[in-house]
Specification:
The complex is a heterodimer of chains A (294) and B (284).
Chain A (H helix, E strand, L loop, with lengths): L29 E13 L5 E13 L3 E5 L6 H9 L6 E6 L2 E2 L7 E4 L11 H5 L1 H5 L4 H14 L15 H13 L5 E5 L7 H15 L5 E5 L3 H7 L2 E5 L6 E6 L8 H4 L3 H29 L1
Parallel strand pairs in A: 3-8, 3-9, 6-7, 7-8
Antiparallel strand pairs in A: 1-2, 1-4, 4-5, 9-10
Chain B lengths: L2 H7 L2 H4 L2 H31 L4 H4 L2 H14 L6 H32 L1 H16 L5 H9 L3 H25 L3 H10 L3 H38 L5 H10 L3 H29 L14
Classes of the chains: A alpha/beta (294), B mainly alpha (284).
């Protein structure tokens, strides 16, 4: 296979895992495009709240993009627009070059809150996707067993979510999302509620499972270290209403280990660059908050 | 394997809460028995001295009446037949009423338009003193079983409906979104997300609902019937037989407690996924 051919596509996952860095992400076709997207919400008092304003960015197939921005700026809104759960007011959203009208095929979305089904065991939670898509119970469970093992939960198949720790529930959610073999993966601060060690564990797990799948990832987070350690590209949002302020490339080699990479000089350079860009926006948000309190 | 060996094999962690339970359980039971003895004893004593047993009856007379019913039968035939009739009316009414309540509750809970259209009608229907309908049902359906079943149904329906409605409304939106992303169609969301999620709400209402079903059946029989425990009580009232009224009450209470026990078993089975909440606390 010539290195210039994008070897991504539905058939490449997950059987022929590719060696890292065979092709440059910059040459891959776009997987997600937002063009001038504006989204307004009706607020309770009858007014409007603009979550995103004229937002445009592109995620290429196989690219890992982190989205950072000040609290409450509308980062999550961009994900619900891409997923088709919400419709944009103005502007266009394309997934795999098709305008988003419903939930696109082969899209995975990991929510900030726990979304596992409390009345199902780990195994049946993970098997939910294939079951919904028409697999037989046995086939879905066999497939799920494999994924439960891949996220490191072998032996916990018959446990209910309330019997698991927060980190383990996130693993269930990860397996539940990845079992559908998404080519677009949206993640909304998935590890935000976890303690630092568990979070780093989950980040490494995510990178391991993602590498070679060719999936395009949009990862929304507050945590700059997390954003840079995981991503090929960091998109910095402005204070609300969100629009793209800056796009920073992260040229760090893969495979990465999160706890090691953050000590490298190259990492710190990117960190300073992103933080310089973000600081202003964070200050704007803070002063607004202070004005509201005063 | 002997029970002793089983205890020895159990993991050590289990052993800790045991001794307290062993000490507490007989103490509680003993106190309960004492209270009942005290209550019945003082009743018996008062009815033998200054209270008129014609109005208030007494425990020994009630006990004799129950024994008499079970050995010699009642004025309307075997007591077992009366119980079977009442139970059948209650169970059929309970099943029809709860199925209708769940179906309509979930439908309205998920369909906003339908809920807004129906809201005033349901509020009005709920405000009707439904027990009065028993008289109407006797006219409509006659003295047979169906009029009692109808009374039980209208009582059960609203108890279940409001809980199913609330349960269907309170489904976590993130869980539904997650299911949609995973590929669930609306029908699958209804059966795999909404219904299981509303189950704890629905089951909670079923406890009350079975009580209502029994009330419906008995009030129905009381209004006009040719069989059943309600008829027995009505007959006892007509002949100033206070012991008969008490005896009927006790039999109905025992039936209700048995049904409650069965429903608790069902609930435990269906809600096995829930964290064991305050299981050691007193439950009423």
């Amino acid at each position: 296979m010539s290195p210039t051919t994008p070897p991504y596509g539905p058939e490449s996952f997950p059987h022929n895992r590719l060696p890292e860095g065979v092709i440059s992400v910059a040459e891959a076709p776009p997987a997600i495009e937002l063009r001038g997207v504006t989204k307004r919400f009706q607020t309770r008092d009858g007014g409007g709240h603009t979550a995103t304003r004229d937002m445009s960015f592109t995620v290429r197939q196989g690219e890992f993009v982190s989205v950072v921005g000040p609290t409450g700026c509308g980062k999550s809104t961009s994900l619900s627009l891409i997923s088709g759960l919400a419709a944009a007011g103005e502007g266009e959203v394309f997934v795999q070059s098709r305008p988003v009208t419903g939930i696109p095929d082969r899209l995975g979305y990991m929510f900030q809150q726990d979304a596992v089904l409390p009345w199902r065991t780990v195994l049946d939670n993970v098997a939910a996707g294939p079951r919904y898509r028409g697999a037989t119970k046995q086939a879905a469970r066999d497939q799920a067993k494999d994924w439960v093992a891949r996220v490191g939960l072998a032996g916990f198949e018959r446990y209910y979510p309330h019997q698991l720790s927060g980190g383990m529930r996130k693993r269930v959610a990860l397996a539940q999302t990845l079992i559908n073999e998404p080519s677009i993966l949206l993640m909304d601060e998935p590890f935000g509620a976890l303690d630092v060690q568990t979070r780093e564990h989950m980040q490494d797990l995510l990178l391991d499972l993602w590498s070679g799948t060719g999936a395009a990832v949009v990862f929304v987070t507050h945590d700059l270290t997390e954003a840079i350690a995981l991503a090929d590209t960091v998109v910095v949002m402005t204070a609300a209403p969100a629009t793209v302020k800056d796009v920073v490339r992260v040229d760090l080699e893969r495979p990465r280990r999160v706890e090691e990479i953050r000590l490298e000089e190259a990492f710190l350079d990117v960190y300073r660059r992103v933080w310089d860009s973000l600081r202003e926006e964070v200050e704007i948000t803070r002063s607004r908050g202070a004005a509201r309190v005063a | 394997m002997s029970p002793d060996a089983a205890t020895l094999d159990a993991p050590a962690v289990r052993a800790t809460p045991r001794p307290r339970r062993v000490l507490r359980a007989p103490k509680i039971t003993l106190t309960r028995v004492l209270l009942v003895v005290l209550w019945l004893g003082s009743w018996e004593l008062s009815a033998s001295t200054f209270l008129d047993p014609f109005y208030y009856s007494k425990p020994s007379a009630i006990g004799a009446r129950i024994v008499d019913w079970f050995t010699g039968g009642t004025a309307f035939g075997s007591i077992w037949q009366q119980m079977a009739v009442t139970l059948e009316e209650a169970v059929v009414g309970f099943v029809i009423g709860s199925v209708a309540g769940v179906v309509l509750g979930v439908l309205l809970g998920r369909g906003r338009f339908l809920a807004e259209v129906c809201a005033p009608f349901i509020k009005a229907a709920n405000a009707i003193p439904r027990i009065v309908l028993a008289s109407l049902f006797v006219i409509w359906f006659g003295l047979g079983m169906s009029s009692k079943i109808a009374t039980a149904v209208v009582l059960v329906f609203f108890a279940v409906f409001f809980n199913a409605f609330q349960g269907a409304r309170e489904v976590d939106k993130t869980i539904i979104d997650n299911a949609r992303i995973l590929g669930a169609r609306p029908r699958q969301i209804l059966f795999t997300i909404v219904l299981p999620s509303a189950t704890s709400w629905i089951l909670a209402s079923l406890h009350v609902a079975f009580g209502f079903a029994l009330i419906g059946a008995i009030v129905g029989e009381y209004t006009g019937a040719d069989k059943g425990l309600g008829l027995l009580i009505n007959h006892a009232q007509g002949t100033f037989d206070s012991a008969g009224i008490y005896a009927g009450m006790i039999i109905i209470t025992v039936m209700a407690l048995l049904a409650e026990w069965l429903l608790t078993l069902l609930e435990r089975r269906l809600l096995a996924w829930r964290p064991p909440s305050s299981a050691t606390e007193a439950q009423i």
